[in-house]
């Protein structure tokens, strides 16, 4: 049975229930009570948004300022190893060559023309691409998220733009922040050029987005709709233990057999702990990055 079918409903319910419980617990220790639902403006002060600095390994002169809000749904109020790992591989040329496939028909320009990140959260990969000079960067997060989630993204973009001497006018042309529900044709379709889809992404990124198998199918639908013919889909993940590893890895089976995406590059990085939750489980701290591309029409392709 394909990922995203009813066989995973129990896990989805358990994950959503846990998220709701975490949101409730956070609310008990929060002074402000302005944010209660998806439609709230939450236009109060910035006490609920914290500012942090990530310093790139292997190059301490490269740093990114990012913002997090306690009101972010799910686990979007934390930075995860996968996000930092992908950002590092985009910023450091020798690391970049490990994940950017420039062979066969898949050569993409650097910096890329159009980039898209799903479930951005802290958005380190998108901010790294902005730093690298990508012509257009689209940051998305769940349409379920309240406005403070998007306020935090806006703050991150504008603060770093000032540091990197990117003018407000230039920024308005290069960056879009869009709410998006995976699998749906919503604001993201307009951002990519509407029905003509004339601005499809060279580079699509999903960092720690495949831990819940229920959403595999919808994420892949969004990714494939958004990718240019020669585009790359960078998927970073850790095995968090919420479901057996084979069910997480089923994402790549569905990607290949239902969406025609093959793995063209992959790397693994070991961290001391899982930064997002302070876990010292070394197995859980490992990050896997797999880069997907559309299968080429070749007799050697395993379809």
Features:
alpha/beta, seven-stranded mixed β-sheet, two-stranded antiparallel ribbon, disordered C terminus, 35% helix, disordered N terminus, 303 residues, single chain, Rossmann fold
End-to-end Cα distance: 18 Å
pLDDT under 50 segments (min length 5)?
1-10, 17-44, 298-303
- H and E order: HEEHHEHEHHEHEHEHEHE
The helix count comes to 10
The CATH level-2 architecture is identified as 3-Layer(aba) Sandwich
The global form is globular
Which fold name fills CATH's third level, the topology?
Rossmann fold
The chain-level mean pLDDT equals 83
Strand count: 9
The number of domains: 1
CATH class: Alpha Beta
Brief write-up:
The chain is of the alpha/beta class and 303 residues long. It is 35% helix and 21% strand.
Structure description:
Pfam families: Methyltransf_16. The protein is an alpha/beta fold and 303 residues long. The chain has a single domain, classed as 3-Layer(aba) Sandwich (Rossmann fold), CATH 3.40.50.150. Helix content is 35%, strand content 21%. The chain has a 7-stranded mixed β-sheet with strand order 5-4-3-6-7-9-8, with helices on both faces. Strands 1-2 form a two-stranded antiparallel sheet. Helix 4 links the parallel strand 3 and strand 4. The longest helix is centred in the first third of the chain and has 20 residues. The chain is globular and about 50 Å long. The N terminus and C terminus are likely disordered.
